[in-house]
Amino acid sequence: MTLILRWLLLGCALLLLTQLNIGIDVRSFGSALWAAFVIGLLNAFVRPLLILLTLPVTVLTLGMFLFVINALTFQMASGLLEGFQVAGFWNALLGSVLYSIMSLVIDVAIQRLFGPRPPQIG
């Protein structure tokens, strides 16, 4: 249940980003839900690979290159979906930072509301 609630709230967060006029456009709530799903998949599977491949640059920039990786995955999601558009790299950078902050707030709120997850066996 918490996974579905988190997904719905992240979709709402994407809709909120469109209201800030920072170059991010989401056509509908359904498009926002798909975008949240695709961003989650990219963060789970593509982002770790990008981090591994760019590890020397990330170390040289003291971790600041991770912002670029986040922006690239955010912009990659907009390239994969029709109802979710990002105007450019700087808009993707700002959007990914704001989306990450909103995601953190949502995660903390859900954890406080439902309590910590029980430990997994196996």
Task: Describe this entry's structure for a reader.
The protein is mostly helical and about 120 residues long. Helix content is about 75%, strand content about 5%. The chain is built from five helices and two strands; from the N terminus they run H-E-H-H-H-E-H. It has helices at about 1-20, 30-55, 55-60, 65-80, 90-115, and strands spanning about 25, 85. The chain has a two-stranded antiparallel ribbon. Helix 1 (about 1-20) runs antiparallel to helix 5 (about 90-115) and helix 2 crosses helix 4. The longest helix is centred in the last third of the chain and has 26 residues, at about 90-115. The chain is globular and about 40 Å long.
Distance between the termini: 21 Å
Poorly predicted runs: none
Q: State the share of residues found in helices, binned by percent.
A: over 70%
| Major β-sheet profile | 2 strands, antiparallel
Quaternary structure annotation: single chain
The counted number of beta strands is: 2
Shape category: globular
Number of helices: 5
Mean model confidence by pLDDT: 94
What is the spatial order of strands in the main beta sheet? 1-2
Instruction: Give me the secondary-structure category.
Output: mainly alpha
Task: Spell out the helices and strands N to C.
Answer: HEHHHEH
Query: Roughly how many Å is the radius of gyration?
Result: 15 Å
The share of residues in extended strands comes to under 5%
Could you give a short description of this structure?
By secondary structure, this protein is mostly helical.
